[in-house]
Amino acid sequence: MSGLIVCATQRSGSTLLCELLKATGVAGVPNEYFQHFKDSGIADQPRQYLAGVSDPSVLGLLPPLDPGVPETSFDFEAVRRAGTTPNGVFAAKIMWSHTPDLWVRLGERSLEDVFGPLRYVQVVRRDKVAQAVSLWTAIQTQAWRSGDSPVAEPVYSFAAIKHLTEWLAAGERGWTEWLRGRSPDVVVYEDFARDPGPTIEILAGVKAPPSPLLRQSGSRSSAWAARFASEAA
């Protein structure tokens, strides 16, 4: 079985896919091994998602950037070990926003040069506004999964959701273009969440285990999406 690279944008449903793949025990361990930025050594910070937004009502809801400590080296072999299940299958998840630093780390090499034969899986979400609402909520609360304790009460922002809708769409387009000619499997969140079984069986070759995650969206997400649509119109 080839290794798996899950290509995604934030809040696209990739976490559900990857947790189910991990739970099979035979499809690698597709975590985000490349999420720390070279110039800070820190994973995504709230303000990085809103880069280019100058609206003080948005920026006032976000903590300042932590400069961190620049990365001096990157251990691909450690990634290979962490991402490989006992049957020898490697898997990783990559967000489009993390690819610029990843390409620099790779240099003249390709992902296949480092990890061997790979199968690519692109996760997309049709409803970009719902995706952006989910991301804007998580950015503020830092509750990325069900069970995480929120650090703040989220505040609606048309400007933030508009920016994130466009940013996520650009990221999806970026993956689509990069994957052209690589024959990726495309997983549509809205379909996959309704019935993940067939996708897991295709990718892992085994029956899908029970979902380890609870759905996070609720009435607030729906209300914000409806409000955004009304204001955008």
Automatic annotation (TrEMBL):
<comment type="pathway">
    <text>Glycolipid metabolism.</text>
</comment>
<keyword id="KW-0119">Carbohydrate metabolism</keyword>
<keyword id="KW-0808">Transferase</keyword>
<protein>
    <recommendedName>
        <fullName>Trehalose 2-sulfotransferase</fullName>
    </recommendedName>
</protein>
<dbReference type="GO" id="GO:0016740">
    <property type="term" value="F:transferase activity"/>
</dbReference>
<dbReference type="Pfam" id="PF09037">
    <property type="entry name" value="Sulphotransf"/>
</dbReference>
<dbReference type="InterPro" id="IPR015124">
    <property type="entry name" value="Stf0"/>
</dbReference>
<dbReference type="InterPro" id="IPR027417">
    <property type="entry name" value="P-loop_NTPase"/>
</dbReference>
<dbReference type="InterPro" id="IPR024628">
    <property type="entry name" value="Sulfotransferase_Stf0_dom"/>
</dbReference>
<comment type="function">
    <text>Catalyzes the sulfuryl group transfer from 3'-phosphoadenosine-5'-phosphosulfate (PAPS) to trehalose, leading to trehalose-2-sulfate (T2S).</text>
</comment>
<feature type="domain" description="Sulphotransferase Stf0">
    <location>
        <begin position="5"/>
        <end position="229"/>
    </location>
</feature>
<comment type="similarity">
    <text>Belongs to the Stf0 sulfotransferase family.</text>
</comment>
<feature type="active site" description="Proton acceptor">
    <location>
        <position position="32"/>
    </location>
</feature>
